[in-house]
Design a protein that fits this description.
The structure is a homodimer of 218-residue chains. The first copy, chain A, contains 8 helices and 12 strands. With 218 residues, chain A is an alpha+beta fold. The first copy, chain A, has 2 domains: 125 residues, Jelly Rolls, CATH 2.60.120.10; 78 residues, Winged helix-like DNA-binding domain superfamily/Winged helix DNA-binding domain (Arc Repressor Mutant, subunit A, Orthogonal Bundle). In chain A, the strands form 3 sheets. The first copy, chain A, has a 4-stranded antiparallel beta sheet. A 4-stranded antiparallel beta sheet of chain A has the order 2-7-4-5, with helices on one face. Chain A is elongated. The termini of chain A are far apart. Chains A and B meet through helix 1, helix 2, strand 5, helix 3 and helix 4 of A and helix 1, helix 2, strand 5, helix 3 and helix 4 of B. The first copy, chain A, binds a DNA duplex (30 and 30 nucleotides) through helix 7.
DNA sequence: CGAACAGTTGAAGACGATCAATCTGAGTGG
DNA sequence: CCACTCAGATTGATCGTCTTCAACTGTTCG
């Protein structure tokens, strides 16, 4: 594997140059570092200890997104608020970097890397949502969420007619959601019985967006 | 929600400055853009069309990681090879950017953003693996994968004694894996019966790493 | 027209969730 | 030092959901 064309990414990712912009802070065991929903003013780099990153869902359930260890990073902002909460599992030392410092650095450089960074951070958020969906929702809900995503983001839904044109076959959808093709078919049956969708042919569905949104809420 | 402290990330993420470095290319429907495992020389930004990103697993199964649409990005390299394969679902126009161009730009700027970018790209890869695990593996396999991760990456496994010290309670593990606490307990039973692990007390396990690695392979 | 593939439907079984009961172990106060 | 307590962890029994395998339907294209 040649190492020339992507060395910009393959160097030691120790985050030293970022950590040096912040200050070292300590937390005892079982302490909240930041709350879900609060303003994301700091980015943290773990020095020592183990941290739990978790998400509190509407229904009271909890999902643990990650366990962080030395060299890991959390609090990279995208929307301005923390999407998850962070809590120590052991006495922990962190480097705390003010996000405004990054802002300042960004203007010194070109937009290229910050654009790329934004895209990757967005993708992490999307994958987190998907992870929760995969782990916690039943099949009809998963399918509804997928259809809603198609309607809202893929430009294959006609608002006038209410018709969604599926750009991919059943097998791709099933492999995306992580279910069997047959389960997908049955979930579409369920949604049809609930008058959420109406099958025109296998690539065209009539959608009641309001009901779909309800069906896509766990 | 104030917009000052993170505007470096909140500007329109259209990737225009990156796309401008590449050239426009077209693919017909149902065409492979890149194969899983091949050298990652280009980064792609979707102009028009829908692309399927999928992963082929060892056992012949397939998992669809994502469907990409206008403005989405794929092929951001981390390890030097593509981890997934990309295939068009419709006629597609893309911007194809040589990774070496990014390399060149990186050296012009500080290391800060490329370090951050590497971290986020790594996190995306880890989340992808976790997504596959969550969707496709049975509970004992999931638990084995988790324990192996702890042994290899969290510094809580003593090679001499073969004892793993769990840094978190059962509830955290279960919420991380996405299973019930009781299922976790039963999975540990199964692994014990297979002589993969041996319970000392609820925070300490004797581990047979070789067998654990086997149990963690789907 | 019929072959080949995509999608749907049916029946059986496996797996994990849930609820309830029990066990363990660390911390507390007598 | 020993009961007592309470949360965490395990075990048992039951039930529902999703997978699997199989048969069938429908659609596209030579």
């Amino acid at each position: 594997m040649e190492n020339t064309s992507y060395s910009y990414l393959s160097r030691e990712g120790n985050l030293a140059s970022i950590a040096s912009l912040g200050r070292s802070v300590f937390f005892p065991s079982n302490t909240t570092i930041f709350e879900q929903g609060s303003a994301a003013k700091y980015l943290y780099i773990v020095g020592e200890g183990v941290i739990r990153i978790s998400r509190h869902l509407q229904d009271g359930q909890r999902y643990v997104m990650a366990f962080l260890k030395k060299g890991d990073i959390c609090g990279v902002p995208e929307t301005g608020t923390y999407l998850n909460c962070a809590c120590t599992l052991s006495p922990t030392q962190l480097f705390k970097v003010n996000v405004s410092v990054l802002e300042k650095r960004s203007s010194d450089h070109g937009e290229l890397f910050s654009e790329l960074l934004l895209k990757t951070v967005t993708q992490i958020r999307i994958q987190q949502d998907r992870l929760i969906m995969t782990a916690r929702c039943d099949v009809p809900t998963k399918v509804a969420m997928f259809l809603l995503d198609l309607c809202e983001n893929f430009g294959c839904f006609c608002e006038k007619t209410g018709i969604l044109t599926l750009p991919m076959p059943r097998s791709d959808i099933a492999d995306y959601i992580g279910i069997a093709i047959e389960s997908l078919s049955r979930a579409l049956q369920v949604l049809t019985k609930q008058n959420v969708i109406n099958r025109i042919d296998c690539r065209h569905l009539n959608i009641d967006v309001g009901r779909l949104r309800a069906a896509a809420t766990p």
